[in-house]
Amino acid sequence: LLPRWTDWWPAADVAALVHDTQVRDELVAEQPRLPLDYYEQLLPVPVSWWSVPTAYLQLSAAYDEELAAAQRSGWPTVVMTGQHLHQVVDPVGVADALLDLVRRAAG
Predict the structure, then answer these.
(1) What's this model's pTM, rounded to 2 decimal places?
(2) pLDDT of res. 67
């Protein structure tokens, strides 16, 4: 089993992503340890995937290429200024953004 995801990084880096100590402690405690092959799996994409409404929520600039691909595909997009774990830091804001995207994609 691999170490927990947050153990892959220095504690200061994780703290920079999740400032609230209690939330960070809960996040760390709830993480499973997964086998390496979990990350090596290739998941098949069903043909029907491309026929359902789709949207993209970007939480950090690390995913600029994915955002550009979504925009080229004509998907509704929302960009939130955050970091990799922004859904933990601002769950209400992320949920609101997702609900907006669902409404726009279903349009």
Answers:
(1) 0.78
(2) 97
